[in-house]
């Protein structure tokens, strides 16, 4: 297991702890991973406790967690901050256009101001104005970024517009790799980060859901040629969020954060292959997962240089 730090694995994350967690009916139309109903009374306390526990677990492994509170009652998906902003080496921050109006309220100036105080931020590129043109790109949900090979993998969907993706790729120096993916019932995959995870030495990929065979082979080759072990995930494992993971830099070793649901879906051989290069850390967030996202969605990785502490 490698102890060397990697640009692919941030050592800090932003998380948002919900106080009024509900199932967002506005986003259920195109999110097949999401529960169909649920009230605040049913889930609010459980979701609050799950994020609290997840943050504590990550901190115990040496990850710096910047935990923000969401006291609003009209931001049901606030627990998923990775969709509205991302950070990048060199001091750059991107703010994204969101499809659902309820999700646009998640953008917070206090989080951006915090990042500017604690880290060296040189530029902020705000794409949110594209919402008025019906162009959406929901952050590192819509894209899975290979920071080493400079590739932005992106499933084509209403939440990933090719024009917005091209603008991001040009600004941030990524090669866009767009593809189509569907589940077993032929429904379009809504976010790329439920389908795949790219780490430093390993990648998790639900390639059987990629509809074009040549594109499937191209993506597999691109990942493996960069020296990564490619762990193939079944459609059933994808529905259990096995692809929704994020590599982080912990104390000494890199870790792969995923949910207990996802970890239990892995086979013994898959676990052995992954743990030969990175430590698996499972976080228990079953209530949060009812909203259609898992551990990766709750973590906005910080790829910025910290300022000296005064």
From TrEMBL:
Q: Which Gene3D superfamilies match?
A: L-arginine/glycine Amidinotransferase, Chain A
What Pfam families is this protein classified in? DDAH_eukar (PF19420)
What is the protein named?
Amidinotransferase
| Organism listed in the record | Rhizobium altiplani
Organism lineage string? Bacteria, Pseudomonadati, Pseudomonadota, Alphaproteobacteria, Hyphomicrobiales
């Amino acid at each position: 297991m490698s102890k060397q730090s990697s640009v692919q694995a941030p050592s800090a994350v932003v998380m948002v702890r919900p106080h009024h967690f509900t199932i967002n009916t506005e986003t259920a139309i195109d999110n097949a991973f999401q529960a169909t109903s649920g009230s605040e009374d049913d889930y609010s306390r459980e979701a609050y406790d799950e994020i609290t526990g997840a943050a504590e677990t990550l901190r115990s492994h040496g990850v710096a967690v910047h935990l923000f509170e969401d006291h609003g009652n009209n931001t049901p998906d606030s627990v998923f901050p990775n969709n509205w902003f991302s950070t990048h080496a060199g001091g750059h921050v991107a703010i994204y256009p969101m499809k659902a109006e309820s999700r646009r309220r998640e953008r917070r100036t206090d989080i951006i101001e915090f990042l500017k105080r604690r880290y060296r931020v040189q530029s902020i590129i705000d794409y949110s104005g594209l919402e008025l043109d019906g162009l959406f790109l929901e952050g590192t949900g819509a894209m899975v970024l290979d920071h080493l090979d400079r590739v932005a993998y992106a499933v084509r969907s209403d939440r990933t517009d090719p024009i917005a993706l091209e603008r991001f790729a040009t600004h941030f120096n990524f090669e866009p790799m767009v593809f189509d993916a569907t589940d077993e019932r032929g429904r379009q995959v809504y976010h790329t980060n439920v389908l795949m995870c790219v780490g430093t030495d390993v990648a998790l990929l639900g390639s059987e859901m990629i509809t074009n065979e040549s594109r499937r082979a191209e993506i597999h080759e691109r990942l493996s040629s960069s020296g990564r072990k490619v762990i193939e995930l079944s459609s059933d494992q994808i529905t259990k969020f096995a692809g929704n993971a994020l590599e982080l830099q912990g104390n000494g070793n890199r870790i792969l954060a995923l949910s207990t649901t996802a970890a239990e879906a892995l086979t013994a051989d898959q676990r052995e292959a992954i743990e030969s290069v990175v430590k698996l850390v499972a976080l228990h967030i079953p209530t949060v997962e009812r909203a259609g996202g898992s551990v990766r969605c709750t973590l906005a990785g910080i790829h910025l240089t910290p300022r000296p502490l005064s």
